[in-house]
Amino acid sequence: MVDGGKDIEREALLAFKEGLTDPSGRLSFWVGADCCNWRGIGCDNQTGQVNKLDLRNPFQFINGGVADPDAYKRSCLGGKIDASLLRLRDLNHLDLSLNDFEGTQIPEFLGKLRNLSLTELHLRWNFFNGPIPADFAKLESLEVVDLADNLYLEGQIPGLFGHLRKLKSNLFSGPIPDELCNPPNLHIIDFSHNKLSGGIPKCTGNIHALVYGNNSETFERLVRVVLQGRIDEYSSIVENSNSIDLSGNNLTGGIPSEITSLSGLRILNLSNNYISGRILENIGDLQKLEKLDLSRNHLSGSIPPSLASLNSLMRLNLSYNNLEGRIPTDLHKFNDPSIYEGNPSLCGEPLPNKCP
């Protein structure tokens, strides 16, 4: 890269730094002519241009907390995210996770990063409020979108792109957009603990990656992207890959029959909603399912016998619904009564209720 380009990127980063609060001086090392040597900056090995900005708080969360909250707070960046980032023309990885931008909205200009080649956007746990900028729907190159645990993000979800979408623990409302299914090679859907309403889109049955699972080319590319970012995220990606978590919302209607075509699905969590109707008779088609949580809904009817054919299933929760009839005897490995409690009309082992 010519020196003029380096000057533009260095000035852009210094303008970005100027808008931030930095109590612990994490960015005090941003000195010198070559910004590629600055902490948190990554550059392309061939062109020398800035392609990565990773300013995630280095304090790691353990069981949802930190050992030293005061030190964590001092390490948080805050203030204003400056639009000078638009001058980083080769930026493809932006991570500002675990900082504190409380009281501010996600900047509108981030939606204009579509002019760049941004593939990863991590804004988790920053206490942003307000809506997601509508232009985020135009960030077509995104492969990872993580806006989880901001607590105060609200409004409807725009048609987001990305193969990994984490929007949990916010205040999003309205229906789940049909754009959820675009692109079809989506590996993680986590919209849990929001205020979403309406039904589960039938188009979920079209999500290609949840059919082919971890063997898909998209999944392999996603893991490579994460490994190039932070290796400690690898286990989280693998553990939660091929999952749908819509728990803790206000969703209504039935479970779409199309969902049973997702033969690569490993985790399905629809708990704590208002979902009604019956458990799908052919739920046994989800042969790779490892975790199924349908608890605390309004499901009725009997437990389908095909559930017992899920040999990979390790965790099951059907509690607090309106299920009835005999618990299939083939479900003997799930012998904890709490799995079925709160269904007064269920009978048979492991419940104390004897069947007539």
Automatic annotation (TrEMBL):
PANTHER family: DISEASE RESISTANCE FAMILY PROTEIN _ LRR FAMILY PROTEIN (PTHR48063:SF97), LRR RECEPTOR-LIKE KINASE (PTHR48063). Residues 9-44 form the Leucine-rich repeat-containing N-terminal plant-type domain. GO terms for molecular function: kinase activity. It is found in: Membrane. Belongs to the RLP family. It is a single-pass type I membrane protein. One of its GO terms (cellular component) is membrane. The keyword Transmembrane helix applies. It comes from Tripterygium wilfordii. This is Putative serine-threonine protein kinase plant-type. Keywords: Glycoprotein, Kinase, Leucine-rich repeat, Membrane, Receptor, Repeat, Signal, Transferase, Transmembrane, Transmembrane helix. Pfam families: LRR_1 (PF00560), LRR_8 (PF13855), LRRNT_2 (PF08263).
